[in-house]
Amino acid sequence: MIYQTNEYAPLKRVITCPPMYMEIRNIINITQQKYKQDNIDVFKALDQYQEFVQTLTLHGAEVLELSPSPDLNEQVFTRDIGFTINHQLFTCNMKEPIRRGEISVLQDFLQKKGIEYHALPVPTLEGGDIVLANDTIYAGTSNRTTRKAIEYLAKTIPDKQVVPLQMREDILHLDCCFNLVSDEIGIIYPDAFPAEDLKRLRSVFELIEVSDHEQFAMGTNVLSLGGGKVIALPENQRINQLLAQKGFDIIEVPFSEIIKSGGSFRCCSLAVERGV
């Protein structure tokens, strides 16, 4: 089954990929620039990934794993290459050449699993720029996702309201500065947005605001498992405490090695099915 209408219903099925060949090779974001010298400790990244997968499984999600390819160093970030809306799974059109090969790997995998998909024909749109809120889809316009692609998506799913959100140029994806954990509550890095878009979001959601440091440490990129359970980084204590005060069950999982490449838990999970 394929089904998803928001970011926080119970996670039933999810696609991940082990960071077997993770490496900062061609720098494609400012986080990688900082960690280029240290690069990635693959053994540590694999240990952290396995704890993440075990946590997903423990809380009821079926984990479908892609086979990692030696020439695809960013494969762990499966959210970027696809997304699910209602009963439709879309495969993306990536901007960076280093990531384009990931799409055919995903499509081959979906075919073998008997999962139908819609390949987006327009350049370019990446899954990290899509945040679902039931009847509304927030789509970040970034260096990775174009207005043309967002317009195509809106025509493809006319039963949803697609709301473009302009982001600061140095922000990688929308989920690096905005995420939702319930119908009412979200996490946001306010400096990423123009005043008009920020006002729009504040009128709809109660927003936990993160600082520059917390944004760089992937403070918005948590993953909701459903039932108020949220996977988050142990380093982001202030955000975790604020979420806990609002009734969320925070599950802290180490992910320090993987975030060196510019993504965290949401980036590493392509949700295929969320229940009610």
Ordered list of secondary-structure elements with their pairings:
Elements: E1 11-16, H1 30-35, H2 42-58, E2 62-65, E3 82-85, E4 88-91, H3 97-113, E5 118-119, E6 130-133, E7 136-141, H4 147-156, E8 161-166, E9 178-180, E10 185-188, H5 195-204, E11 206-209, H6 212-216, E12 223-226, E13 229-232, H7 237-245, E14 249-252, E15 270-274
Explain what you see:
This protein has 276 residues and is α/β, with parallel strands linked by helices. It has a single domain, classed as L-arginine/glycine Amidinotransferase, Chain A (5-stranded Propeller). The chain is built from 7 helices and 15 strands. A 3-stranded mixed β-sheet has the order 2-1-15, with helices on one face. Strands 3-4-5 form a 3-stranded mixed β-sheet, covered by helices on one side. Strands 6-7-8 form a 3-stranded mixed β-sheet, covered by helices on one side. The longest helix is centred in the first third of the chain and has 17 residues. The model has no long low-confidence stretch (mean pLDDT 94).
In short:
The chain is an alpha/beta fold.
